[in-house]
Amino acid sequence: MCGNFELTADDLKALDAGDGEALNDHGAACYRAGDYARAVEYYRLAAGLGEVTAIVNLGYCYLYGRSIVRSTELAIAYFKIAARKGSVDAMYKLGDIYSSSKWGVEDKQRSAEYYEQAIEQLLTPAWAFSADLHLAVKRLLPYPSLCYALGREYLSRDLDLACQFLLLAHVGYQIFIEGGEDYYCKADREVEDLLGQSCFADRRKKWAQVLF
Questions:
Q1: Residue 199 belongs to what H/E stretch?
Q2: Segment 123-150, tens digit of pLDDT
Q3: pTM of the model as a whole
């Protein structure tokens, strides 16, 4: 543990109760405040209690080197553990990591497989928007980055599906931005740029009416 790390009375209660969620939330608060070292310690404690979100958060800390030595290998390991436990966030991030050469492990097939796993976890193995449109929209909106990635994936294969995912990404990002999470602004602008392409001129209006 970091030298000045001390558990509060509430932390000790959470440990005694096996409340990994509370410890993860404490870690997330430290992370938002820029205290990455304390955040990592809370994530480790929460992960030890089986809190899946904490396992994902540790993956991000290793991926970006937040107070610990950056390790893509360990980041992937944590994301895979969380993905096996059903984490959509972990499945998305694995798809993202394997999607390009940025992390030195590019594998387009693996990337597509993890994106598909994420969407199937949210919807059904034989997913289709038409099966239960409103439920699909409700489940996808909290994952705008996944929708953005899928929108890019389908650009060369199915423009209608690409448009649907990009619209979901835009609306999802807007919800987070309105909630004060401004770090999504850049990604939202990128989505808007894609939706502004001529191939989506008619599709955007059509699918916006259908989805929302």
A1: none
A2: 865 555 555 778 888 889 999 999 999 9
A3: 0.86
172: which 2 tokens?
Answer: 């999802």
Burial class of residue 202 in the structure, from the number of CB atoms within 10 Å of its CB (0-12 exposed, 13-18 middle, 19+ buried)? exposed
What is the 8-class DSSP label of residue 130? G
**Percent of the chain predicted with pLDDT > 90:** 82
Phi and psi dihedrals of 107, rounded to 5? -155, 95
Domains of the chain in start order, with CATH, are: 1-99 (1.25.40.10), 123-212 (no CATH)
pLDDT score of 125: 55
> Which residues contact residue 146 at a Cβ distance below 8 angstroms, ignoring those fewer than 6 apart?
88, 92, 95, 115, 118, 119, 140
Question: pLDDT tens-digit profile of 101-122?
Answer: 999 999 999 999 999 899 888 8
Amino acid at 182: D
CA-to-CA distance for 140 and 175, rounded, in angstroms? 12
The Cα–Cα gap between 53 and 48 comes to 12
